Amino acid sequence: MPSSAKRNFTKRTIVHLAEGYCTPRGAKTTRGVLVYSEHDSVAVIDSTNAGKTARQLLDGGGDIPVVGSLADVFRMGLKPDTLVVGVTPVGGRLPTSFRRPVIEALEAGIDVWSGMHQFLQNDQELRLAAERGGAEIWDVRKPPEDLPVGMGAMINNKSYSMLMVGTDCALGKMTAGLVIRDAAKAIGKHYEFVATGQTGMMITGWGHPVDAIPGDFMCGCVEKDCLSVDGQCDAIIVEGQGSLLHPGYSPVTLGLLHGCMPDGMILCHQPSRTAVSNREHVLIPALSIVAKLYEDVQKLLKPSRVIGGVLNTHGMAEDTARAAIEAAENDLGRPVTDPVRFGAEVLVEAIEKHRKEIGK
Amino acid sequence: MPSSAKRNFTKRTIVHLAEGYCTPRGAKTTRGVLVYSEHDSVAVIDSTNAGKTARQLLDGGGDIPVVGSLADVFRMGLKPDTLVVGVTPVGGRLPTSFRRPVIEALEAGIDVWSGMHQFLQNDQELRLAAERGGAEIWDVRKPPEDLPVGMGAMINNKSYSMLMVGTDCALGKMTAGLVIRDAAKAIGKHYEFVATGQTGMMITGWGHPVDAIPGDFMCGCVEKDCLSVDGQCDAIIVEGQGSLLHPGYSPVTLGLLHGCMPDGMILCHQPSRTAVSNREHVLIPALSIVAKLYEDVQKLLKPSRVIGGVLNTHGMAEDTARAAIEAAENDLGRPVTDPVRFGAEVLVEAIEKHRKEIGK
């Protein structure tokens, strides 16, 4: 299952490997796939938490059991066809304690999906185990061989194009985009989600790992994926990455902007952050100023408008969260919400209103 | 000789391989190294043009002979230690007719430098030839293993930081930057040139091939290279790539901007272009508008100013060229010239003036 522009979603029965990492942040990939995908997740392996449930540890995922080993999964009569490596530790190397369960899975014919920087396919022991078991390894962050250069083709798009943008990295842009897609479905609209990172790709089964793609080809990959669904849906929701303010990841953000040429953007922010992550000298200005930056960067290629905002209010008391949302709305002059907490309806309304205005 | 942030220039004696490609555009890498590096270039191999000189074919390079084969080079008593593959054909694969001379060079103990997308080191036949001859292959576009993420460190730079920017790709940004560096040297100023592409790297012996670096690490590589010379020179001139207007290469441009955090920028343009290369639907607006785009993208991280402009007037009659420069100056409100044709003095003056203004 290589990354590609073909929509090839196949529903999988998944066991997650998150040994020793079972927290919402530690097992970010597991959490994303558990909560937001249509795959059947049947168990999470973490021997340090065996006997608990996903809900207790991962802030989502319901009653799915946390078990001690792959043998336990089999003993429970569960029959996964896929093992998801649910973590992405700094450095992107497979933790030592993960080797044995990964080999056991491959030998049992269970495909392994990994978002590590270190590709499992390049590890001879793992490759041989896959051969023995007739299983496949999907290194989700491995760029495909055939990389296109962006042509600006989405300037002439048919379906409304929407990009999730942000004031920083890692503040819930993917989640917000998926919640918006699902809220649109509830009112009979078909929004296609274009994944641009590993977790999103595991959820949808396709896309490109844009942050791992060489600079010359990032726009082209996003453009190719958008074109593959353009005209076949009401709107294309492109998963966001990084931020134009981020002095490390900003090129990835621009790759998405010029690849998908958004008609609209939704600006995501976490109110507790005043500076870019781990870069205290890079301050985050008011949302209205950041929104203007995104619009300014696009306007010479195609007019684009920030049509709403998302606040990630996780961990804030409800009244504080609502006050922060109101303040953000006053600053931005556009609808703002925390879609995970309060629903995404106002954002879907904003998209539908803009679609009508520009006739897309 | 891996790409790195260490300044490790060693003067080489170079034979260029440009078989069948001996035009300024076809042998772009050869021309750049011939005209702008301190290496000794002793011959160019192109059997279809044997007997001519570089000047006749490459618009520069003086009386350096064009010869039919490596054997001819030896017969002339020349002793190159390095063979530069002087072309980068679309697709980035070594032309078939280049294999034999490359193998002959390696077997004779001559190092080979190549900017192909297809790495020569991965070609077993070439690798074995290098082993036999005790020669080294430098795949200039191969990213190093150890890639840093940008931290925005150049916000607090010591030496004045200058980025060459443009309205499009391939319009002479590297050349203009080198000419500016040399004009500064003539008045006793030390401007360090930071290479960000293969030809620039061959000229200086160091740098990163930014367009071949995965998105997450482009800023970090440029930042690392700038920091390695910051405080040790009057100004850092960063080689430009692509354009913020280019819907394929713009992320590379932003990687440079946020990596080097320029105090000043010089905007390069070719007056004959009205749209971005091969993208007729992406029009190039007035230089003053493009300059504002570059300044707007930077201003939330660090104030940066376009302090001058470069027009590539190659092929234009002199009076037409001078009229175009005057028109550009009126639009931009800043000094503009074609430094290759009319000298870079006004641009060095603009840099020195800005340095004094901001105290760097």
If helices are DSSP runs of H or I spanning 4 or more residues, what is the number of helices of chain A?
13
Say what the CATH topology of the largest domain in chain A is.
Rossmann fold
Q: Care to count the β-strands of chain A?
A: 14
Quick check: average pLDDT of chain A?
Answer: 95
Structural class designation of chain A: alpha/beta
The largest interface is: A-B, 45 and 45 residues
Shape of chain A: globular
Distance between the termini of chain A: 33 Å
What's the CATH C level of the largest domain in chain A? Alpha Beta
Percent helix of chain A: 25-40%
Following the backbone from N to C, one meets helices and strands of chain A in this order, namely EHEHEHEHEHEEHEHHEHEEEHEHEHH
Please state roughly what percent of the residues of chain A sit in beta strands, choosing from under 5%, 5-15%, 15-25%, 25-35%, 35-45% or over 45%. Answer: 15-25%
Radius of gyration of chain A: 20 Å
The strand order across the widest sheet of chain A is 3-2-1-4-5-6
Features:
disordered N terminus; Rossmann fold; homodimer; 360 residues; six-stranded parallel β-sheet; 36% helix; alpha/beta; 2 domains
